[in-house]
Records
---
Amino acid sequence: MSRRKGWAVVMVLAFLSSSLSGCLGEDGFDLLPEKKGVPGGLTLACLRSSMYTSMVIEIDHEPGYRPFSSSTDLLEERLESVCDKPSGISVQFTEVDFGHTGSWSAQDVRDKGWEEKETSPRDGTTLRWQVLFPSGAYEEDSVLGVAVDASTVALFSDTIDDADGPFGRPSVEDVENSVLVHEVGHLLGLVNLVYQSPIDHEDSDHPGHSNNEDSVMYWAVESADVSNFIFGSLPNDFDDDDRSDLAGLADGSLAVRDQLWP
Ligand SMILES: [Zn+2]
């Protein structure tokens, strides 16, 4: 590199670093990316009310991909039964165009999710979790839903549409109800994502999932295998073991890791 070029690089760096330090000095760390965390990284923020007294579920769906109202009603009911939110839990729908073609990776879900988030997941005293309903399928095409960080999940409705049972049981609506509660269950840290349960209910072949087929956290719920539930009803609620874990996390009797708050 010539001496002349070298100076140009130094000048640019000096300019960049001075403007960076100026912004950081005035506005804190706005220029640094916010930590996205791992699924379960905001479970205490949901389970407790000492900081976040209300909660918003942001539903970002593409045109024609708005979820059944039974799915979001059920999710609200399930969250209200485990999270302490004295000022309430509400659902906010936004129609968006993700501008994505081809299959989705976990990183795609993270990137598009954060582009569309209305505010930070921790917005004053409001905790905001986000559910994307994009068109298209996940790269592993049997996957119905994914949880990709502490505040972001996605459900793949095109795949869910094909996951109903051969005789319409469970129905597409049943499957969507269950998968939505299941993915948000991962944001609550289930099963053993950010703690170690004293109860042996994690499926040894499917880490992060329940071994109880009556729990919504049962491993088969997020895969196209759900059609196997034809002879029973598809679970859409947490079981006693899941609830015991969440109660232990809430009251501090169960040790927790990887939290973005507190
Ligand atoms: Zn799962």
Note: The chain has two domains: 1-32, 37-251.
---
Amino acid sequence: MISLRKLPWFWIVVGAVASVFVVGVLAGKITWFSEERPVEFLDNMDHQFKAIPQSANTFFTDRKSVREPVEGTVARGQDVYPLGPGDIDAAEGLNRNPGVPKTEFVLARGQNRFNVFCSPCHNYDAHGESRVAVRGQWAGIPDLTRDETKALSNARIYHIISAGQNLMPSYADKISTTDRWAIIYYLRSLQGVEGTESTTPTATADAAAPTN
Ligand code: HEC
């Protein structure tokens, strides 16, 4: 065992004092030798225009730092569709068109959204020979104008867009409720059919119509 007496006490003390001094200077705590502001590495991070929670804010007219979410945005992890992919019966009862009318504008909007979100896989004409299917050689993307798809109710298609189905991902957090119904109108026009609202009688389900 090393005896305490043999330790180089002088240097230990000098080292400790020097360390405190260096750390103090670097942290800006020791300024006795200068009238200047302490050294700041990345001073634009120390002094920046930022909103501190609950503080007043001169940038916004209502002077609040805590902002409401921007309309139409979805927080990470926020549950925007209450059903899972397998809840098909519940979907037939729950998903009702909240009153989106079938107008020229809505159809054009549906076309626009379909071309953005659905055409990469299902193609612009919904037949399925898309960029992803052809170039990506992704098999299993159905032709949405086939009889099986035509026979699906609007409630069910809304459900597929919202919850996803097997390899097709959910679009509930990317496409607004109204746009999803607009897409369904447009898809029906591509299919050349009117489509049914739901396989469940309307009377029992109206009260449960979701807002999302
Ligand atoms: C990433 C590729 C991809 C995108 C984008 C995509 N889908 Fe799909 N979709 C698929 C695949 C794959 C299937 C087949 C799922 C399965 O095997 O059950 C499918 C199935 C469907 C079905 C069911 C068809 C049937 O007969 O069972 C509908 C309806 C549908 N998609 C509509 C849409 C709509 C509307 C959009 C745009 C909002 C969309 N899809 C976007 C890949 C995609």
Note: The pocket of heme C is lined by residues 117-118, 120-122, 132, 140-142, 144, 148-149, 157, 160-161, 165-169, 171, 183, 187 (CB under 6 Å).
---
Amino acid sequence: MVVAVKKLKPEGFQGHKEWLTEVTYLGQLHHPNLVKLIGYCLDGENRLLVYEFMPKGSLENHLFRRGAQPLSWEIRIKVAIGAAKGLRFLHDAESPVIYRDFKASNILLDLEFNSKLSDFGLAKAGPTGDRTHVSTQVMGTQGYAAPEYVATGRLSSKSDVYSFGVVLLELLSGRRAVDKSKIGIEQNLVEWAKPYLGDKRKLFRIMDTKLEGQYPKKGAYTCASLALQCLSPEAKVRPRMSEVLAALEQLSAPKNASKTSQAEQKTATNALSRTQVRSHPSPSGRTPGGASPLLPRRSPLHSSS
Ligand SMILES: Nc1ncnc2c1ncn2[C@@H]1O[C@H](COP(=O)(O)OP(=O)(O)OP(=O)(O)O)[C@@H](O)[C@H]1O
Ligand SMILES: [Mg+2]
């Protein structure tokens, strides 16, 4: 069996806390769209995590690494669907879990481009009872974290939905959530792309040129509208992951779908029209800045067989 081993830097309490959170959650949660934790090791300062090896690495490598074979439109939708299934599973579990670190580098791919979420170090139990959020220290990754979470520390499953919207934008545009090599507004993908997402005629301007125009225009527009809903500054307006998933599955459904799946598609469309985007001011200025306590990257991972 081929495995991937992550060796954590001996960096004190936060590192240990995350290691423990990862072991606790991944030890209990099992789903085809979550990476399998095969084992772990704690010996003094040394902490290891052993996972199933994901042969195609992370989505980040495929989208952004120089020289990577471009992903087709169909593969991009497949990857989005797999990741949405993983998040939906966490949010709709009997004891809901907020993932909190949804980003392209944490979406791992198998040989058939099935996605699995990895890195549960920041996962957090969702609110219980009538509560809509849990209050917590702001952690996560710059460019992906929801604005209300960054501003107030209020974390809800809708924070994950926002991050999902950012990854959808990365899939559409082939650009990173934050790119310091760009100038001005183009450094922040959400700020830059938002004005184009709801405009059928302008959408092509933000589409990944590596797709060379090989994508269905209507499908791209539906996907962009979905991203816009996920990125709504107001958390409660964002769709639930089950609704996001239904909309994405509709995009990948074959044209001559059977009657049953047409009925399912109708349900999905209805679900989405209930969560139409309202117009909101952009969260400019509230997005995480350099001084925010958002996490930098964690320790690198080694693979072995
Ligand atoms: N199970 C795995 N199988 C194969 N490759 C993996 C596996 N887990 C991680 N990787 C690869 O190792 C890289 C580094 O992972 P790691 O989680 O340490 O950092 P990251 O996700 O890039 O950033 P962060 O520390 O912020 O999560 C991933 O981006 C991915 O390419
Ligand atoms: Mg990671």
Note: The pocket of adenosine-5'-triphosphate (ligand 1) is lined by residues 4, 6, 35, 51, 53-54, 57-58, 60-61, 105-106, 108, 118-119, 141, 297-301, 303 (CB under 6 Å).
---
Amino acid sequence: MSPLEHALVALIPVTIYILLRHRRLPSKTMLSVVCFGSVFPDLVDKPVSYANLTPWGRVFMHSLPFAIPIVLVVLGYALITNRLHLGTGFSVGYLLHLPGDWHTRLLNGEIPPDLLWPLTSIPAHPGPAHWWGPHNINIIWWSAFSIITLSIVAIRMGMDISTQMKRSSS
Ligand SMILES: [Zn+2]
């Protein structure tokens, strides 16, 4: 799936849920968090794969042995800072990304070994993603976009953690 498709796959059910449960549209913060979660695996794994640090662009953050601990840490932080709804939004976006990439094989009852990497070995795959190429998204531009986005989020998270620590110590 392309990044836009991943975002839509996450945003549509979250928006419907919030509309039905709270009778209002999701906040801008919730939309941003869900969007970020839905493309987070591609923000990390496509540039990492392009740098030849992993076998291809659907392992590492795309793999359950990494995804589950990350989601648990995010949910734990969201819980202790009373923002469980935002942590859940990120987690829903993130966790929907994985079956989104593998929906054809999963619907056929097959579990791709890539989902369990590095616990399993995986076959060789060409390129970081099917949507990468001269007539599609340029991987260098995507990598630059990824680095900028992840840097902004890391700075924002650092500021947030610092604020929460000051709040809890006072
Ligand atoms: Zn992906």
Note: Residues 41-42, 58, 62, 97, 101 surround zinc ion (CB under 6 Å).
